[in-house]
Q: What sequence folds into this?
């Protein structure tokens, strides 16, 4: 099979805007979809961790997905976050979810249970067998405790319905191993915004990005420069975002990027407990960095 070109470049890992009562702000979500779409991102990622999926109810998730499909006026591919640490529950959610108009699901490595690598393979094989749309794996050991090893990912890449991985493991060595040995039709997508240029330099295909919520044009330019081998231009932009990438996660994701979006007038910075809005100190640092780099 050829590489699925729809998921090269930048997927914006959409935040979920809330109002002051922490209810979903659908006007803000519509504005965000328009903002990143006009900014040139290549596809939308709905209800990943950046969308605060752990504190979104199943009913709300269905509503957010339906709303995102309806207001995807540019017809961008949609990736939907659908995973968990209870395999049977994930399979039931796949069965119940309306995946019409969804181009792939993004499924996170099981968290908290700490399964073996063999358990991870069995988990994702069951999901891929059940899913009516292609599956992108998501490796994020900073949140799940477990790292999907390169050999595990390569084994799962043999499944015809598993088309790629978003890897936020931060290991350049593992990234290079995957670039060297993954099938040519297997998508390699960075989950670390600060490593896009480095990972694309060894053959990765793009990024599912937090920063792209607030700075879609700049981050799309960065990524495509890197994919196309224009590393001088990519590095210039990558270094401009270096401080941002640190600041965004000091008070947990998506607290920082939501503050950037509020500063830019896209939507509120409200989050749901147990997260708290950006502190005054972080807000000041983010605004100063945005001004210094010419992003506002």
A:
């Amino acid at each position: 099979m050829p590489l699925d070109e729809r998921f090269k470049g930048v997927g914006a890992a959409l935040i979920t805007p809330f109002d002051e009562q922490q209810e979903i702000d659908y006007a803000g979500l519509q504005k965000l979809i328009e903002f990143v779409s006009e900014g040139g991102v290549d596809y939308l990622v709905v209800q990943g961790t950046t969308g605060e999926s752990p504190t979104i109810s199943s009913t709300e998730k269905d509503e957010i997905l339906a709303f995102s499909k309806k207001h995807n006026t540019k017809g961008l591919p949609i990736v939907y976050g659908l995973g968990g640490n209870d395999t049977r529950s994930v399979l039931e959610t796949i069965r119940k979810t309306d995946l019409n108009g969804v181009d792939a699901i993004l499924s996170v490595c099981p968290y908290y249970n700490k399964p073996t690598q063999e358990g991870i393979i069995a988990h994702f094989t069951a999901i891929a067998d059940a899913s009516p749309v292609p599956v992108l794996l998501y490796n994020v050991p900073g949140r799940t405790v477990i790292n999907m090893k390169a050999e595990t990912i390569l084994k799962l890449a043999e499944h015809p319905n598993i088309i790629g991985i978003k890897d936020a493991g931060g290991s350049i060595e593992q990234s290079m191993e995957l670039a060297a040995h993954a099938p040519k039709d297997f998508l390699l997508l960075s989950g670390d915004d600060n490593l896009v240029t480095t990972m694309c330099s060894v053959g990765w295909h793009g990024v599912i990005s937090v920063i792209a919520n607030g700075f879609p044009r700049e981050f799309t330019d960065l990524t495509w420069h890197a994919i196309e081998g224009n590393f001088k231009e990519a590095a210039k932009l990558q270094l401009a975002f270096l401080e941002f990438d640190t600041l965004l996660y000091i008070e947990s994701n998506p607290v920082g990027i939501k503050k950037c979006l509020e500063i830019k007038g896209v939507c509120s910075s409200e989050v749901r407990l147990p997260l708290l809005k950006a502190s005054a100190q972080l807000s000041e640092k983010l605004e100063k960095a945005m001004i210094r780099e010419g992003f506002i």
